[in-house]
């Protein structure tokens, strides 16, 4: 028995001090599940799945797991699924972001601890795909990602609705008294009407597209709607491919490289994708020692047009993107800008994939590079005295009339302060002011919420104001829109300049020059810094303590410092 090759069920034996006994015992308990010796001799494909009653975006997972298993069995493998943490975006407090790294540790350690030769990662809602890729990259076992796919938009009173750009649009109308309480309650049941992830280019859809671009999922699978039969065929094919990977390993470290990460940045920009995806991609890349620089992002952004007309940047939905040609059509359009020698989980390079004949493309949804939706990339990084380590603006979903501005700061010290005062009729605010939110960054106890999309104060909203400059160290949902500056670093909670802004200070924003400056004398700022209260004590125990101690800033992907593989200093 001791000569048994170390793959399949013989991998990573439980330690009883007698390896032959360990394998004997493992086979005994595998037999208890009803598996034959023939099955026990097969390569093992783990299926890391994150189904949960608290995660509606993953409600198709039981069916998808069955389809993955079908593919694994057909290809000669033994599929064994296992649960991991699940993060349903609207169900986790204070934020799902706070638990992304915890989920990544769960995925990494369970891949490593259990006997498997390859793993299928089954996740979809915003933080789950990055957590799974981060964990798989660190474990560096052959892995292939499968997402559940987007939900379908549904017609309602003459227009199509889908989560969650439309959720925010209608909520804005409700706050402006343009629609009634009865109407907003009716619309609530019309926004998310099928299984699947949010149906616009939010974080989940952006991460699915980035994953396909990196080469960590099968070609053509990112945009298949959740309820489409193609989604089940993609699951079956994913299971088959996982067996191929078990036999001929291609490891995440061979797929996630500096070149494929740059390709993913190009696609993020061409999609007008989620700002969150930049943080997640940085964290994933950090697990294999690949740095992502915001200066490089700006260079790529200047030469990457927005090609896709999807909400919140444009008008269409993810199901339209699928019908229009999917991520493959976007990649073909970007081909001259991409590194084509990147390896993928299929064993083909990206260039080999894109060498196939181009299918039909709907140019209403996926534009050509010659006639793009917008001439430059969707995201831009800003630097300056207010953001020495950088900040992000999603210019593709912002109002260009607000890009070159100087404004008066109206400051909110925390989320509680924001909630208490934003709609106060006595709030001293005009449409030309800059709303500033402090203490909502990565290490704050609010867990870097998607609160950077500060609501327009009710009295201004009722007067017809739709957009204002908003600045914070928080994040923004990928489904949101507006002139919103996010991820200001260093954050206020660790003493960044953002925390020293006071009501009435002048701030200058220039998207053209990539600048964000606080127009206050250094001597005054030094006095404010000296007067800052001492940092609140660390939480005394548990995950709160680990999170507060180990979380890095946005430009490092908000990963835990001890989980990143050390790469070249950027
Ligand atoms: Fe899960 Fe939007 S809430 S993808």
Molecular structure report:
The chain has helices at residues 19-31, 37-40, 61-74, 97-113, 128-139, 165-175, 181-188, 203-214, 229-247, 252-255, 258-271, 275-286, 294-302, 318-324, 326-334, 350-354, 415-421, 458-462, 522-530, 542-550; strands at 44-49, 78-83, 118-122, 143-146, 154-156, 159-161, 379-384, 387-394, 404-412, 434-437, 469-472, 484-489, 506-510, 515-518. The strands form 3 sheets. The protein has an 8-stranded mixed beta sheet. A 4-stranded parallel beta sheet has the order 2-1-3-4, sandwiched between helices. Strands 5-6 form a two-stranded antiparallel ribbon. The mean pLDDT is 95. With 570 residues, the protein is an alpha/beta fold. It folds into 2 domains: 8-22 and 34-150 and 199-355, Response regulator (Rossmann fold, 3-Layer(aba) Sandwich), CATH 3.40.50.2300; 380-535, 3-Layer(bba) Sandwich (Glucose Oxidase, domain 1), CATH 3.50.30. The structure holds FE2/S2 (inorganic) cluster.
Short characterization:
With 570 residues, the protein is an alpha/beta fold. The chain contains 20 helices and 14 strands. It has helices at residues 19-31, 37-40, 61-74, 97-113, 128-139, 165-175, 181-188, 203-214, 229-247, 252-255, 258-271, 275-286, 294-302, 318-324, 326-334, 350-354, 415-421, 458-462, 522-530, 542-550, and strands spanning 44-49, 78-83, 118-122, 143-146, 154-156, 159-161, 379-384, 387-394, 404-412, 434-437, 469-472, 484-489, 506-510, 515-518.
Q: What is the number of strand segments?
A: 14
Distance between the termini: 50 Å
- Low confidence ranges: none
Level-2 CATH architecture of the largest domain: 3-Layer(aba) Sandwich
The fraction of residues in strands falls at 5-15%
Q: In terms of structural class, how would the helical and strand content be classed?
A: alpha/beta
CATH fold naming of the largest domain? Rossmann fold
CATH superfamily of the largest domain: Response regulator
Radius of gyration: 24 Å
Keywords: Iron, Iron-sulfur, Lyase, Metal-binding
GO molecular function: hydro-lyase activity; iron-sulfur cluster binding; metal ion binding
Domain Dihydroxy-acid/6-phosphogluconate dehydratase C-terminal: 365-558
Organism: Bordetella flabilis
